[in-house]
Design a protein that fits this description.
Chain B: InterPro entries: NADHpl_OxRdtase_5_subgr, ND/Mrp_TM, NU5C-like, Proton_antipo_N. The complex is a heterodimer of chains A (about 100) and B (about 650). With about 100 residues, chain A is mainly alpha-helical. Chain A has three helices and no strands. The chains are: A mainly alpha (about 100), B mainly alpha (about 650). Chains A and B meet through helix 1 of A and helix 24 of B.
């Protein structure tokens, strides 16, 4: 199977994630879309690793996973505390930081 | 001898200090102390004069450096004195006439409560004037120059409770400041041109400096001289300065202050000779002023103001002579000295008349006073004959020479200047005869003293009872100075002219060359005599033959203008005051509209812009995310584009 197909898949997933981040209001969904974008990137990394025949991409994918795990911890904590404070998980409700 | 020069200035200065700081203890003896200081100064002057006469013509100059005043790098300003024949003449005139005026003031100011202070100011005036004529550099001269301005301010405004006196003092001070500004800029220019402002180096190096520079310096010096000597266009303060006590007017007009300008022009002769354009300006100023003052003098009914116009006119003669160069310097100074005698005498006489007439100054309310004040009449009369140039008296010798020198200028210019001087002589004869007739001859036109709510011109002198005046002769302290000055008015000119004594005395300092007048000396004298007779006859026809109306007739347009000092104040008001107002108003307008507009506009546009840009921060996370995506897309596109190129 042609590895380029994986790149198309990666781009498709990234676009779905990006659109989700921009369009959805629910913080949890936005968060999941961010994860989807990260994983789309991971897929691209791995594909490029395979195409170029070295392991750099795979190493990067692991880094991304670690960072994503840390980000999930912090991000979920923020979302939970925002929900507790404002009884809403909508990102548009948290719009106090403006003039 | 060297130490005496410093003392000459120091004695009146110490007198001023003692009188002004001494407090009430000196109230009784103050006037005599002040007079003593002036007299001691005069005695020192006489000693120095005797010493000077013992030496040859060229060795008579004494130079003393007292101390270094401002030594900064290459800039050196010393306090030093330079006594030569020119300054000696002034020293004797200032201290001599000054002492007589001090003596006169003892009687005149006898009833003034603040007379101690008055004498302190008089002494300060003498000290400043002596410093002015004795300084050996322009900077020290400037100190004396300003000192004279200060002392004149204090004295003109001596009766400061009268608003008119306070205003006159301020006016004199301000007009003088305009001239002083010229002086200070001239000194700065001198320093940049010559690297020094001592008389010696500046005057010897003057011919090596460029003519443009010299003209600038000379014109600024002329401006300074115009301010102090009340020449057109800075003449307006002199008439108002009559608000001061009469001895002050005598001092300002005869011995000090107004002579400073003539001194400056004569002393800086080398500068003016290197700048013919400036010399033309000087003679123009002189000629215009001598006519201006004379015309004003004709129309005034106030005896002091008539004499003030006369002073302006006579100083105009001196400035004219000084502007003629070496032909005229000696005669300018000679006329200055003789004028010092007769004008001081005339003013003291006027003061004596006012003293006897309840301080009335309007000549239309005088008349027939010769019977009541014989001494004043005779001394005033001799001063009168001297000023109109009656043959044999002082004014004849000095004025005649100036008219001759004016004609000797040559060409059209010579005829114009000579004609102006001749016309001035005619007008002088006219207005002085008018003063004489209105005051001492004719019927008695006395009026009761002005009502008490209208404060009288000079408080607390002589007969204060009100009602009809009782003219009486003044006390001896007042008549003696008048007699001495009358003697000077009669004989000084003759003494100076014997063997050209004055000419030989001053020649080593100022230089002299004989002018060759297109008219012979005798013709000029004959012409002067003719206009003299004409002026006297005209005045007699107008005021002697007919009774003098008690209220001034409306008169012609020229008379009305002359009564208002030839519209000098109106001119100043319209051109300078209004002009200044318009200038400041337009500047304020510009400031508000242009300068503030730029600043406010910048602020407003920055504020407006930020107001718009603030909308970008709407608090919605997703819109931030869009901009981040957009930004990232732009960055990537740019990177790809760069790589493709």
């Amino acid at each position: 199977m042609n590895p380029v197909s994986y790149l198309y898949l990666s781009a498709l997933l990234f676009t779905i994630g990006g659109v989700g981040v921009l369009l959805r209001r629910n913080a949890i969904v936005v968060f999941m879309c961010v994860e989807l974008m990260l994983n789309a990137c991971n897929l691209a990394f791995v594909t490029f690793s395979r195409m170029h025949g070295n392991l750099d991409g795979q190493v990067f994918a692991f880094f991304t996973m670690v960072v994503a795990a840390a980000e999930v911890v912090v991000g979920l904590a923020i979302i939970v505390s925002v929900y507790r404070a404002r009884h809403s998980a909508s990102v548009d409700d948290a719009s106090l930081l403006k003039l | 001898m060297e130490n005496l020069i410093g003392l000459l200035v120091l004695v009146p200065l110490a007198g001023a200090g003692a009188l002004l700081c001494g407090g009430r203890r000196l109230d009784r003896g103050g006037p005599w102390l002040g007079t003593l200081a002036a007299a001691v100064s005069f005695a020192l002057g006489v000693v120095l004069f005797a010493d000077m006469l013992g030496k040859g013509g060229e060795e008579r100059t004494l130079d003393v450096t007292v101390f270094q005043w401002v030594p900064v790098g290459s800039f050196r300003a010393d306090v030093g004195f330079h006594l030569d024949q020119l300054s000696m003449t002034f020293v004797l005139l200032i201290t001599g006439v000054g002492s007589l005026i001090h003596l006169y003031s003892i009687g005149y100011m006898a009833h003034d409560e603040r007379r101690r202070r008055f004498f302190g100011y008089l002494n300060l005036f003498l000290a400043a004037m002596l410093l002015l004529v004795l300084a050996d550099n322009y900077l020290l001269l400037y100190v004396g120059w300003e000192g004279v301005g200060l002392a004149s301010y204090l004295l003109i405004g001596f009766w400061q409770h009268k608003p008119s006196a306070a205003t006159a003092a301020k006016k004199a001070f301000l007009v003088n400041r305009v001239g002083d500004m010229g002086m200070s800029i001239a000194i700065m220019l001198m320093f940049t041109t010559f690297g020094t402002f001592a008389f010696g180096p500046v005057l010897t190096a003057a011919d090596r400096a460029g003519e443009g520079r010299l003209t600038a310096i000379a014109l600024l010096l002329l401006l300074a001289a115009c301010g102090k000597s009340a020449q057109v266009p800075l003449q307006s303060w002199l008439g108002d300065a009559m608000e001061g006590p009469t001895p002050v007017s005598a001092l300002i007009h005869a011995a000090t202050m107004v002579t400073a300008g003539v001194y400056l022009v004569t002393r800086s002769g080398a500068v003016f000779e290197g700048a013919p354009d400036a010399q033309t300006a000087v003679v123009t100023v002189g000629a215009v002023t001598l006519l201006f003052g004379a015309i004003v003098g004709c129309a005034k009914d106030d005896i002091k103001k008539a004499l003030a116009g006369s002073t302006m006119s006579q100083i105009g003669y001196m400035i004219l002579a000084a502007g003629l160069g070496p032909v005229g310097y000696v005669f300018a100074i000679m006329h200055l000295v003789t004028h010092g005698f007769f004008k001081a005498g005339l003013f003291l006489g006027a003061g004596s008349v006012m003293h006897g007439m309840n301080d009335e100054v309007d000549m239309r309310r005088y008349g027939g006073l010769r019977k009541y004040m014989p001494v004043t009449f005779v001394t005033f009369g001799l001063g009168y004959l001297a000023i109109i140039g009656f043959p044999g008296l002082s004014g004849f010798f000095s004025k005649d020479k100036i008219i001759e020198a004016a004609f000797a200028k040559g060409g059209t210019e010579g005829w114009i200047l000579g004609g102006a001087a001749l016309l001035g002589a005619a007008i002088t004869a006219y207005y002085m005869t008018r003063v004489m007739i209105m005051t001492f001859f004719g019927e008695e036109r006395w009026r009761p003293a002005p009502s008490p709510d209208e404060p009288s011109a000079e408080p607390a002198a002589g007969d204060r009872a009100g009602g009809m005046p009782h003219p009486h002769e003044s006390p001896r302290t007042m008549t003696i100075p008048m007699i001495v000055l009358a003697l000077g008015s009669v004989f000084a000119g003759g003494l100076f002219s014997v063997n050209d004594a004055f000419l030989k005395w001053l020649e080593p300092v100022t230089g002299h060359e004989e002018g060759n007048s297109p008219l012979g000396a005798l013709t000029v004298t004959a012409a002067t005599m003719a206009v003299l007779v004409l002026g006297v006859a005209l005045a007699w026809a107008q005021y002697g033959r007919r009774p003098v109306p008690a209220t001034a007739p409306p008169g012609s347009a020229l008379t009305r203008a002359a009564r208002r000092d030839l519209l000098q104040d109106d001119f100043n008001h319209v051109v300078l005051v209004r002009g200044g107002e318009h200038l400041t108003r337009s500047l304020v307008y510009l400031d508000h509209k242009l300068v503030d507009g730029v600043v406010n506009g910048t602020a407003a546009s920055v504020g407006g812009l930020s107001g718009r840009m603030r909308r970008l921060q709407n608090g919605y996370v997703r819109s931030y995310a869009v901009s981040m995506f957009g930004g990232a897309a732009v960055l990537i596109a740019a990177t790809l584009l760069m790589r493709a190129v």
